[in-house]
Automatic annotation (TrEMBL):
Residues 36-258 form the Aminoglycoside phosphotransferase domain. GO terms for molecular function: ATP binding. This is Aminoglycoside phosphotransferase domain-containing protein. PANTHER family: N-ACETYLMURAMATE_N-ACETYLGLUCOSAMINE KINASE, TRNA THREONYLCARBAMOYLADENOSINE BIOSYNTHESIS PROTEIN TSAE. Keywords: ATP-binding, Nucleotide-binding. It comes from Pseudomonas jessenii. The keyword Nucleotide-binding applies. It holds the Pfam family APH. The keyword Nucleotide-binding applies. It comes from the Bacteria.
Amino acid sequence: MPDQDVRLQHLKVWLDEQLAILFADQGWGAVPPATLTAASSDASFRRYFRWEGEGRSFVVMDAPPPQENCKPFVDIAFLLAKSGINVPKIYAEDLERGFLLLNDLGNKTYLDVIDSENADALFSDALQALLAFQQLPMVAPLPSYDVALLRRELELFPEWYVKRELGVELDSTQQQQWQRISDLLIDSALAQPKVLVHRDYMPRNLMLSEPNPGVLDFQDAVYGPVTYDVTCLFKDAFLSWPEERVRGWLESYWQQASALNIPVQPDFEDFLRASDLMGVQRHLKVIGIFARICHRDGKPRYLADVPRFFSYIEAVIARRPELAELQALFTSLRGGATA
């Protein structure tokens, strides 16, 4: 029997035990007949299932050790809930085996429902949640977005996209270009004021819920650059918006953050530059991750969104002369890949 099927059997046994305890504690009577269906899976090893029976529903997370660790999810959920953010309530946990029983925040993500007409309202709600957790004091024992983490993320691009996807080895000139580009992006990120950073604050991880939004996938949170999450929100992996509209949303966030004394850059143009460079760092990282998911994990579908990231990066290059060397590197890589 495949390992995942064995895990699913263990999960079902654990779930039956926990539901019996939960229903008894809540005075809900006997656990009714129910269905357990796949709710979603993501680019990691985690899986989610939805339990539904007689008008009640729960979500079950399967996060297999050693690839996944549930403890950060549990700890950060508690932290965010204290600030009034709508995150999953944890009814039961088995951290050793990687099982969590959660309340159900709904089955519609922002990505499922957002369009040009409702985007302003949905993003307004998303910004309120973002502003709430950016106001949290930085006292939790979370890691920082430091030089090592930023560089490790950036190195995913040459290691997995350039080498594995394009089949190109960087020559000495390209390696020097890459190091200078990396240094520029890292220096810009480290120069920014720090706040709590979700790291994947995007429509796919926001649920249409009450209160709106429900926030998921926050287990990799760190303390890091103030522009990171808002840039991630509006320059998404799976859908794009006109640049002028993005600029308007960024300005709305910047104004609200300033009024709340969140440490954004005092000048909006400086904020935009920091956001642009932060976005380039993230997008290079994600291109590398999507290539890794294809070549290491056998999930090629994510590569279809790589052109979107290059479009984001090239739009920034066009207005940021300091990134001309990145354009030169892209041009030389395309030549090498087609040679």
